[in-house]
Amino acid sequence: METVTVGLAERSYQISIGQGIMGTLGHACRELHLGSRVVVVTNPTVGGLYFEVVRRSLADAGFNVQLIEIPDGEEYKSLETLKGIYDLLIAGRLDRGSFLVALGGGVVGDIAGFAAATYLRGIPFVQVPTTLLAQVDSSVGGKTGINHPLGKNLIGAFYQPRLVMIDLDTLDTLPEREFLSGLAEVVKYGIVLNKDFFNFLAAHADEIRTREKHCLAKVVKSCCSIKADVVARDERETELRAVLNYGHTIGHAVETLTDYKQFSHGEAVAIGMVQAAKISEVMGYAGSTDTERIMALLETLHLPVELPQFSLEAYLDALARDKKVKEGGLSFVFNKRIGDFTIGKVKDIAALLATCGIRG
Length: 360
Hints:
By secondary structure, this protein is α/β, with parallel strands linked by helices. It folds into two domains: 2-172, Rossmann fold, CATH 3.40.50.1970; 176-355, Dehydroquinate synthase-like, alpha domain, CATH 1.20.1090. It is 46% helix and 19% strand. The protein is built from 14 helices and twelve strands. The chain has helices at residues 25-31, 44-60, 79-91, 106-118, 132-138, 176-193, 195-203, 205-209, 213-233, 248-257, 265-282, 288-300, 312-320, 349-355; strands at 2-6, 13-18, 37-42, 64-69, 99-104, 125-129, 143-148, 151-158, 163-167, 325-326, 329-336, 340-346. The strands form three sheets. Strands 1-2-9-6-5-3-4 form a seven-stranded mixed β-sheet, with helices on both faces. Strands 10-11-12 form a three-stranded antiparallel β-sheet. A hairpin with a 6-residue loop joins β1 (2-6) and β2 (13-18). α6 (176-193) runs parallel beside α11 (265-282) and α10 (248-257) crosses α13. The radius of gyration is 20 Å and the shape is globular. The N and C termini lie far apart (53 Å).
């Protein structure tokens, strides 16, 4: 097992990464001196695969374990689902000495984390991510929340977990599309923060796509290390952490316009990154070769790159509700070649979209 530390002073925590380590969860939680009652939040698919391992590990460590299952899918990251979690926590008389375990992908992690952040004004929680996307991105850094019909992640809070436990063996049971979706967030780190990592991904794309464990271990640890460094330097996204939104601005608009049903989150981010690369090229931050390399890697990883056809007005409306709109401008992340970035405020969003071929 390897560890990465997210350094946030008294709120620092470890990311544990290894194969077959889920059975050590109870011991790890006991060492954190968490309360005796725990609720595991998961979905039926993941719960059917891993809840018994988690339950036994927690129970063997002396914890009283309860289960909450929520429906599987981005469309269920909603206020209605959140209310259902609150109802069960209240009915079960969970108190401030209790804690939650988020067992699943990004949807489970985001909504369970937000429930923990807001129930009784905050109880501890632990992340046990079972998808690649959650392991390399959403489980680390304390972003929690739910979607609103008018936009993604518009309701939420920064609330750090006490521990992130990543068992790489969970990737063996991940459906192909969901695994590939997670690779979009992996590529993001290389494009804007680490040229050497991008080159590694390009050189080993076939092995990564086919889930070669040695490569996956390096990928997951590298992503967690990069993100841990960013979060430690800018926890609440006042400046540097905004770089992790690369590709997400247009990607979130794609998700919103397709009602979270046509594309997975990672697929939408892949599309958004290609558009961001094209825009960065037009702005003079990158060259055509950089854009071509980004597209080639995403296509090798079997990710979509073409922007779905919606009207200019539809895209403008979706982007106008983005969290990154502030004081009349949209904060946008540009890649500077590969391995670096800059962030700028875009006043003319229509002109930005025209770069992607979207015109009225």
